[in-house]
Amino acid sequence: MVFEFKIISDKVENFALHIEADAKNTFFELHEAIQDECKYDPSELATFFLADEEWDKGMEIPMFRNKSQKQNSVLTMKNAFLGDYLKEKEDKLIYIFDIANQKSLYIELNEINMEKKINSPVVTDNKGSAPLQSSSNHYDTDLLANEDSELQNIFTDFGELEDLNMIYGEMSEII
Prior knowledge:
There is one protein chain. By secondary structure, the protein is of the alpha+beta class. It has two domains: 2-127, Structural Genomics Hypothetical 15.5 Kd Protein In mrcA-pckA Intergenic Region, Chain A (Roll); 141-174. The chain is built from five helices and seven strands. Strands 4-3-5-6-1-2-7 form a seven-stranded antiparallel beta sheet. The radius of gyration is 24 Å and the shape is globular. The N and C termini lie far apart (71 Å). Mean pLDDT is 82; it is low at 136-148.
């Protein structure tokens, strides 16, 4: 049984990704297909949520187990099969691909083909550019330079530290 998914973004209007995946594929395999096609950094954490018809988050299917969960009852992307959680056309998932900035893709099950079988998820169509993934490893140096100079200006608005020490004394004397 093959699921045909349509993946969209609420941030990038013209983006639409179509992926077919077998019911026996894991959420991790779907995650990898999305990551590869969107050229996202695979070292960034991601997670899936089952969603209702209003796109409200339900059960989470995380990339890794939470340390507080018991070892034998842990649900992760690698041990959760798509067919165990998706049953009907129009079932929905929310895929958070940038956890720090809460950037998401919205996945809807468009079709279920009962006769077809495939080994791993396949991208069948890709329109537009995927939303960008922020990364804690990439910085906009111009932005940081501007922020540093703004911070410096804020601190010097009160005067130089030496001047303040002359007026108010050393902080260690106060404490």
